[in-house]
Amino acid sequence: MKDIRLEYEVIKDDFIKAGEASSKIKKVLKRLGVDPSVIRRVAIATYEAEMNIVIHSEGGNIEVVVDPERIQVIAKDQGPGIEDVHLAMREGYSTAPHRVRELGFGAGMGLPNIKRCSDEFSIESIVGSFTEVKIIIYQISKQSAQ
Amino acid sequence: MNTVGDLIKELELEVMAGDQEAMDKAVTGVYIGDLLSWVMSRIETGNIWVTIQTHVNVVAVALLGEASCIIIPEGAEIEQDTIVKAEEEGIPLLRSKLSAYELAVRMEACGIKK
Fold this sequence. Notes:
Chain B: One of its GO terms (molecular function) is kinase activity. Chain B: Keywords: Kinase, Transferase. Chain B: Pfam families: DRTGG. The structure holds two protein chains of two kinds. Helices cover about 35% and strands about 25% of the residues of chain A. Chain A has five helices and five strands; from the N terminus they run βααββαααββ. The longest helix of chain A is centred in the N-terminal third of the chain and has 21 residues. The relative contact order of chain A is 0.20. In chain B, α4 packs parallel to α5. The relative contact order of chain B is 0.24. Chain B has one domain: Udp-n-acetylmuramoylalanyl-d-glutamate--2,6- Diaminopimelate Ligase, Chain: A, domain 1 (3-Layer(aba) Sandwich). In chain B, β2, α3 and β3 form a beta-alpha-beta unit. Classes of the chains: A alpha+beta, B alpha/beta. Chains A and B meet through α1, α2 and α5 of A and α3 and α4 of B.
């Protein structure tokens, strides 16, 4: 099987379209016959990554590469970057503004949720430049779902 | 009780969106919550989702979390974008005058467990 590559643009502050990239990714994985528990983990991770880009960034994109062994998700935005990545990874810590919290977002669970769904997780952020979250979820489970 | 259609009859829910196919979806349990990240990571396939959030993104969360339907309690106003999106995506969007707690009690009496 040839690797399948999907790429979606995510726009800053676009709450109307928010979640669409994740929904599309999920539909493709279903069509490919990926295991439902793996799809669920990818769906949660991509949704959280998508919302992070919508809420916190200047916009970005989500790239998914599917091969028979694993699914790799790279969510990269165009800044402003995270000052303290260690703090951002702490559950419950959030810099989301009040108007976003009123919509039920910004609970400080995004990055921890992404990490929990991943077999491999890495985050790189440069203030004033970008944040890139990269995760890998194996199709043949090396870790129980959650 | 095993479908969304049965639930609508039993709880006298107001149907805001959802076609017949969606009404035949099986109901497996219920999850109540308004914090979207929390809901995403906890809701199970086929769960009824009760939430007071009514903006359009609840449809994405319901889809990704594979909820069987969304119930908005306390007769809350629902944004038009949300109704349109739920219709497009085939997610039953329902409304009740009851509170989330009263809905939970009624659902328990109908045999719907966690």
